[in-house]
Each structure stands twice: as C-alpha cells, then as structure tokens.
Design brief:
The protein has 155 residues and is of the alpha+beta class. The chain has helices at residues 7-16, 45-54, 75-81, 110-122; strands at 60-69, 88-89, 95-101, 108-109, 127-136, 149-150, 153-154. The longest helix has 13 residues, at 110-122. The chain starts with 6 loop residues before the first helix and ends with a strand.
C-alpha cells in the first residue's frame, strides 16, 4: 500500500469487487492513555446519549444521530436491539443512523432512544454516538417534521 492511502478504503474496494481474502495482524501497540476520561468508544452508549442531549437547549425538538459500532460482530445483534429507533445502515458496515423527536414528529421518542442504547450497553455492544443534526422549536404544520438530505436522499 502506498504512503497516505486509507487502508479501510482499500479493503472496502476489495469487498465491493467480491475479492475474498484474509488479513493477518503482524503487530500492535497499546495506545497511550493521556486523558483522564476513557475514549468515547469505551464509554457506555446511554452515558454518551445523556451527555450529548444534556448540552442541547431545553427546546430542542428533532435530531439525527449516528451509532458507529466498534465491531462488525456487533452489527446484527445491535441492529436488532436498536429496532425501536428504526436504524438505517449508512456510511460503512457498522454505522447505524436514526432520528429522534423530543415532543412530536418523525423519529423515536427521546426516552426510547436512550432505552435502546441501554440495551446495547447491557450486552456489551460498544461504539461511539454522534449527533449529526439537531433543531430547536420546530413547528410541524401539516408535516411530521423536518427533512434532512444526506447524499441526495431524504432522511
């Protein structure tokens, strides 16, 4: 592989072309622990949710979130446990996205989103949670809420 190339991209391209193979780990180094707080992927997902939503203004109404699972081994069980949030695979094999609404509109209720993340935590399914979009004080007039466009598609 040439310097500066993304190894994950190269592996995705092989997968896309149906080329099978095996990858052997020839070495690894433990990361230096410089921060007092554990990295995001080691923190429980429900705790990540509480922290992120806790930073929102009290009138937040709609959000678009992403759970990036730490392993593809977690995908099937994780998607099943996240079924109440209606997850959609996006941007990679271990990335699931969903919408939530605080009071009304399209998306899972805030409490159900948290409970679904707790289910992942109970089964030791780890990952990182990101809030991609959030809106406050939206008014749903003859609609279920806002429409976000990602990659030319409505989500």
């Amino acid at each position: 592989m040439q310097r500066g190339q993304d190894p994950a991209r190269a592996l995705r391209r092989l997968d896309d072309q149906g080329i099978r193979g095996r990858v052997d780990l020839v070495g690894a180094e433990a990361p230096a622990r410089e921060q007092a707080r554990a990295p995001e992927r080691e923190r429980p997902l429900a705790e990540q949710w509480d922290e992120l939503v806790g930073e929102f203004p009290p009138d937040w109404s709609d959000l678009y979130a992403e759970v990036k699972l730490d392993s593809s081994d977690f995908l099937q069980r994780g998607a099943l446990l996240l079924a109440p949030v209606n997850p959609a695979r996006h941007d990679g094999p271990t990335t699931l996205r969903f919408r939530a609404a605080r009071l009304s509109g399209y998306g899972v209720a805030e409490s159900m989103a948290r409970r679904s993340l707790e289910r992942l935590d109970r089964e030791h399914i780890t990952g990182r949670l990101r809030i991609l979009q959030v809106l406050s004080a939206t008014s749903h007039v003859a609609t279920q809420g806002p429409v976000w466009r990602v990659g030319g598609r409505a989500v």
